[in-house]
Amino acid sequence: MPATSLHDQFRDVAFTTAVPFSRDRTDVRYDALADNVSQLYEAGARLFIPCGNTGEYYALTDDERIDVVESHVEATGDEATIVGGAAGNVPEVTALAEAYEAVGADAVMVMHPDHTYAHESGLLEYYDRICDATDLGVVVYKRGPELTRDVLAELSEREAVVAIKFADDDVKEFSQTVDDADGDVTWLNGIAERYALSFAIEGAEGYTTGVGNFVPEVTLELYDAIRAEEWDRARDLQQLLRPLEDIREESGTENDLAAANNVPVVKHGMDLAGYEGGPVRRPLVELPDDDKARVEDQYATIDAADPY
Amino acid sequence: MPATSLHDQFRDVAFTTAVPFSRDRTDVRYDALADNVSQLYEAGARLFIPCGNTGEYYALTDDERIDVVESHVEATGDEATIVGGAAGNVPEVTALAEAYEAVGADAVMVMHPDHTYAHESGLLEYYDRICDATDLGVVVYKRGPELTRDVLAELSEREAVVAIKFADDDVKEFSQTVDDADGDVTWLNGIAERYALSFAIEGAEGYTTGVGNFVPEVTLELYDAIRAEEWDRARDLQQLLRPLEDIREESGTENDLAAANNVPVVKHGMDLAGYEGGPVRRPLVELPDDDKARVEDQYATIDAADPY
Amino acid sequence: MPATSLHDQFRDVAFTTAVPFSRDRTDVRYDALADNVSQLYEAGARLFIPCGNTGEYYALTDDERIDVVESHVEATGDEATIVGGAAGNVPEVTALAEAYEAVGADAVMVMHPDHTYAHESGLLEYYDRICDATDLGVVVYKRGPELTRDVLAELSEREAVVAIKFADDDVKEFSQTVDDADGDVTWLNGIAERYALSFAIEGAEGYTTGVGNFVPEVTLELYDAIRAEEWDRARDLQQLLRPLEDIREESGTENDLAAANNVPVVKHGMDLAGYEGGPVRRPLVELPDDDKARVEDQYATIDAADPY
Amino acid sequence: MPATSLHDQFRDVAFTTAVPFSRDRTDVRYDALADNVSQLYEAGARLFIPCGNTGEYYALTDDERIDVVESHVEATGDEATIVGGAAGNVPEVTALAEAYEAVGADAVMVMHPDHTYAHESGLLEYYDRICDATDLGVVVYKRGPELTRDVLAELSEREAVVAIKFADDDVKEFSQTVDDADGDVTWLNGIAERYALSFAIEGAEGYTTGVGNFVPEVTLELYDAIRAEEWDRARDLQQLLRPLEDIREESGTENDLAAANNVPVVKHGMDLAGYEGGPVRRPLVELPDDDKARVEDQYATIDAADPY
Q1: What chain D residue is nearest to C143 in terms of C-alpha separation?
Q2: Where is pyruvate bound in this sequence (chains A, B, C, D) (predicted)?
Q3: What is the CA C150 to chain-centroid distance, rounded?
């Protein structure tokens, strides 16, 4: 798929898919994963990001990461774009990118940097080396301070970079970054449905979704409303999905860490909606019962609203 | 070395050593590294943490990490304690720990968690699995919110855990954590000289140093003053070292990211003091000239003070 | 003016006016102030908020505050709405509100709370008492954490509350607050032009402006574009004004405090555009020369663009 | 009392006293206040700060503020130092200072600045004008970013400034500030018992207390242990008081605002200990029952420990 086409493929909802594990969480259930992804494709999903945070990237081995990406390639049709997440230093990311390419991925999303200390010029060189080392399209993932406006403006000029996932809750900074960056990239709102309208009005042409793993039609409907500039409809759909997103941001029980519910809510929703969710790996834990009940309520509300 | 002895070994200054690279930064210069470490040992350093942030952990390959740890084992005498840093998910950390043990390390320091989302119980299980999988002493590294007071109190009870490196600038939280944690661990102030007095008065029995890579005698002198409760002398030494630490916290030029100077200052200091510092790997870059000059001034001031 | 009409008056750009001082900053220049306000009225401004932060509220005496509000009433025509800012405890705010009413103001904006400690229920009672004590319409000003979503939802139900100025840069929270609040209030984006599009798409029907003090036509044009849902035009106008807003957010020279340039930029712009700006009172200081030059450049750019 | 003597008076525990109100909170109960203060004086308290945050400064009228300060002067013996809090712009603060002087106060504590925008030079001039306008000793109150290290270093040189209350939880910044400031001032740890050891080791010669309103002997004992460098005893006393301070930092019920319990815990403790606490004014509310029970438990624990 040529790079120009890739830019266009990112003008869509990007599904950051979850990975179903065996009951003891030891193994990835690739068949179940393939069923999930295939169902999403049938529901209209075209852009997939396996091995992101919702995919529990940091709890997977490299072999699993590659097999997860391959499962997406195989379980989807011709119109699908598959973007594998990869983190680490240059050799680590480029090795994964090479493997993703070998199994048929279209692009690699470089995860937000882990390095404890970094310099903007050093980060630029880091991304440049990755761009040079892969034939895949590169998606740059901004989350946290490391990728400054200047770095993103510079990276937008790289031919390999097809999209930038902007995942900080700062719509002013996003707006200014889009304006400052002269390169030809597709901008993704990386913080999902609750920011879908405000980031779209400032230049985002797509967004990433987690709840799309189990209510794909609703988030695709939201995307459609935004593209059509039907703002009242878009706001209604956004409000319909908001409570699920709010629960994901919570800590659950016996825990003070923010957003520990993030992936567990998605997986419980998948279980409810006929997808294969199941358990999460450590350092995450299952959703507490009362939060499960809240997710069930919200899922029922969405189902009853039948917006699509 | 039995665990009881390890606890005592951590009542010291912990040298988080830097790694010298070839001019093109492609290779680790193991001979130069061995010279550095051996010189530090001669200067009185006994506790070494290779493969930490000052050791550019995130820019090393696994093979390099293991060889760096081995170099420390070989370059130091019988009284040395060698603690290798390791990050990632359970299989990744335990594989590194096994390799560190094979080359003669005494302990493994589990780096602050990278996982984007975590739950306190899940983190506990994460550390428990690592503790179960290694015969090395385990050092827990708190930096950021993930390791809450409750998690640290629980981990302090694990037999494998010998020390906790507390690297948040919150002396009240540190004090309360030490008081809440009933287990037998050695508490390390993980944010170096500028916090050495205040954390010591609240229960820290050791601290980690970066500038110790090139002024080991001064930081060991500071440690001695604290142990002797000679607070005026300790404050003077702390103030002598403070400007170097302040420069490390800065961003350098053409950069907005905090502490990009952290490792470059250490390496430039090493070059000044007759150690092998040299270049840093990406995403870090060399120290700008004016910051080099400031480091030189401070180094000269310390040299002239000749406190030891 | 009946309350229903007031709600509608807030569907507009709210001009938070600056106060011109004598050269030694001792006296308010009421004639100059009246000229400024009258010019703004002629340029199309209809909604005025004297005695806000841009009006250096905290550096005025109570007598000056009242006279400043009165000047606005007298210098504007029948279509103007005048909203005086007031801060402090219940007796302090209600005394000012009474005085503002006596000089002809339409509403009182209660400044963000100063109290070091507060409880949500206590804040509700604080606002309720103010509402009970005045016949003016009340504008609630959210800036910082004190006015939570719950408090704002409750306050939206008060008959006296006609508008809520939301001045935190959190568009998700704004969106959720608007959705949760069932009362009949007009929502104002309280952080000006750079947030004008994103907050409008989430339910803001007006916004406050500082640069409107000297480029009123441009910000009114921006408002018009937003109302017309002409987003490309709106984005262009937003980008045209953005650099001025960015400079206002800066610290100037020999200073680390954020946004010290806020009012000085406005006053220098006023001097450039034929309004009476002049000096600022302590703890603010005049704009440094290089920032003055940057404001001049930006003003020239806007002038050349001649968007209206 | 000459300024040199004042400096010495601040080498002590500074009691930030609470103000008892009538049941409907309308009136200050001056007799009860005088009883409280007189009891504290008998218990050994010598340094009093009425009209601070614990004194609900922001909920008092100017007349009440002055009368509260006067009550302190009258209810205490010759050895007492009385420091009245004052906030606002220059005319507001100087008017209060003048009134405090007239009723016999020794010093005025200028509250942390309220001004929404400020410049460091402008702040300096603000404090200079206050210093020039009063014959009282001036206490500078740092809380939040406004009073930078540079501003404090400068203010330390003013003859009128006798003490600086440093109330940010940043012991490194405190240490550096003390080192940078060449002037002759007494440094107060402004965040009470939990920071008493760490700030003392870095140069604080006194600290402010809230719980001292009802357990004065314990906090004076802690101060004594610190002065004697009996660190184990000091740590024990600190740990004994810590839970009360932790509850003060909490939000109570039906509230998300931090530290809403701050003053209510103190007043409930006063009720328990035979002082006159009583209700708080809005925007604070009474302590919830379960928090009252926790305060009672802690008070009983302290009483049983009988450390003095």
Answers
A1: D116
A2: 54
A3: 24
Please indicate, yes or no, if residue A70 is contained in any of the structural domains.
Answer: yes
The ipTM assigned to this model is: 0.96
Q: How many domains does chain C have?
A: 1
Is B198 close to D201, i.e. CB distance below 8 A? yes
Which residue type is seen at B15?
A: F
In-domain check, residue D269: no
Option in D175, D198, D229 nearest B202 (CB): D198
Q: What is the mean pLDDT of each run of 10 residues along chain C (308 residues)?
A: 76 98 98 98 98 97 98 97 97 98 98 93 97 98 96 98 98 98 97 98 98 98 98 98 98 96 98 98 97 98 86
Q: Closest residue of D to C144, CA-based?
A: D257
Distance from CA of B41 to the nearest CA of A (A): 27
Cβ atoms of C219 and C13 closer than 8 Å: yes
B57, B126, B127, B141: the active-site residue: B141
Tokens of A264: 């567990």
Q: Which of D281, D282, D248 is nearest to D20 (CA)?
A: D281
A-B C-beta contacts closer than 8 Å: 135
Beta bridge partners of C21: C28
Q: Look at D202 and B229 and tell me if their CB atoms are within 8 Å.
A: no
Give the integer Cα–Cα distance in Å for C197 and C234. 7
Residues of C annotated as part of the active site: 141, 165
Q: Is residue B271 part of a domain?
A: no
The average pLDDT across D159-179 equals 98
Cβ-defined contacts of C172-177 (< 8 Å, 24+): C172/A169, C172/A194, C172/A195, C172/A198, C173/C149, C174/C199, C174/C202, C174/C203, C174/C204, C175/A194, C175/A197, C175/A198, C175/A238, C175/C202, C175/C203, C176/A194, C176/A242, C176/A246, C176/C149, C177/C149, C177/C152, C177/C153
Would you write out chain A's pLDDT as a tens digit for each of its 308 residues? 444 589 999 999 999 999 999 999 999 999 999 999 999 999 999 999 999 999 999 999 999 999 999 999 999 999 999 999 999 999 999 999 999 999 999 999 999 988 999 999 999 999 999 999 999 999 999 999 999 999 999 999 999 999 999 999 999 999 999 999 999 999 999 999 999 999 999 999 999 999 999 999 999 999 999 999 999 999 999 999 999 999 999 999 999 999 999 999 999 999 999 999 999 999 999 999 999 999 999 999 999 997 76
Disruptive mutation site among D198, D226, D248 for chain B (greatest number of B CBs within 10 Å): D198
CA-wise closest residue to C1 among C122, C113, C107, C148 = C107
Closest C-alpha among C151, C150, C183, C131 to residue C7: C183
Q: Are D273 and D214 in contact (CB under 8 A)?
A: yes
**Residue A219 domain boundaries:** 3-228
* Interface chains of chain D (3 or more CB pairs under 8 Å): B, C
What CATH number does the domain containing D33 carry? 3.20.20.70
Q: Identify the pLDDT of residue B176.
A: 97
Residue A2: its pLDDT value, please?
A: 47
Q: What are phi and psi of A110, to 5 degrees?
A: -80, 120
C-alpha of D142 from chain center? 12
Phi, psi of B83 (to 5 degrees): -125, 110
Decide if A117 and B263 are in contact by the 8 Å CB cutoff: yes
> In degrees rounded to 5, what are phi and psi of residue D17?
-80, 150
| Active site (catalytic) residues of A | 141, 165
Write the pLDDT tens digit of every residue in D236-255.
Answer: 999 999 999 999 999 999 99
b vs e for A17-43, b when ≥16 Cβ sit within 10 Å of the residue's Cβ? bbbbbeeeeeebbbebbbbbbbbbbee
C60 → chain D, closest CA residue = D89
C115 falls within a domain = yes
Catalytic site positions of D: 141, 165
